[in-house]
TrEMBL record:
It comes from Hylia prasina. Residues 85-165 form the Glycosyl hydrolase family 30 TIM-barrel domain. This is Glucosylceramidase. GO terms for cellular component: lysosomal membrane. InterPro entries: GH, Glyco_hydro_30, Glyco_hydro_30_TIM-barrel.
Length: 165
């Protein structure tokens, strides 16, 4: 198994060749993370993954107030905010939905828990593409009737109703 966070469930790797390791998630096992805790002021926590085998490897450090060696100087002014992060998540495309639905119910539960629960990575947003995308099995739209500004012919397709909604 690949090392992971202390106390977290480690990754069980599966090699797909060409350095493409993935972590197994099935009906009985899915790797998880420890609950995230904000670091103390002046400190940071870094999570690093790599092809060499790191899987969300956790390390801690402290920001230096000044650097005595030449290099990059990063100044953080936490009193000035430039943007707001609403959350983190992923996309539920037709391809993702089809793959999730091919799993057994317990494996689906494990997978979704690994994304959305406190024992997972705590996603709180999901994006659903409108109509088909490049991850669909066929081209489709919701209303192909020209000049239908009132959307009288708007209809969801089976992919949406059966796989995503």
């Amino acid at each position: 198994t690949l090392s992971c966070l202390p106390g977290a469930r480690p990754c069980i790797p599966r090699d797909f060749g060409h350095g493409s390791l993935v972590c197994v998630c099935n009906a009985t096992y899915c790797d998880t993370l420890d609950p995230l805790v904000l670091p103390a002021p002046g400190s940071y926590i870094k999570y690093e993954s790599s092809k060499a085998g790191k899987r969300l490897e956790r390390s801690e450090g402290r920001f230096q107030s000044s650097l005595h060696t030449p290099g990059l100087l990063l100044t953080l002014n936490i009193s000035t905010l430039y943007q707001y992060v609403k959350g983190f998540g992923g996309s539920l495309s037709d391809a993702a939905a089809m793959n999730i639905l091919k799993l057994s119910r317990p494996a689906q539960d494990n997978l979704l828990r690994s994304y959305f629960s406190e024992s997972g990575i705590e996603y709180n947003l999901i994006r659903v593409p409108m109509a088909c995308s490049d991850f669909s099995v066929r081209p489709y739209s919701y209303d192909d009737v020209p000049d239908d500004y009132e959307l009288k012919h708007f209809r969801l397709v089976d992919e949406d109703v059966k796989m995503k909604v």
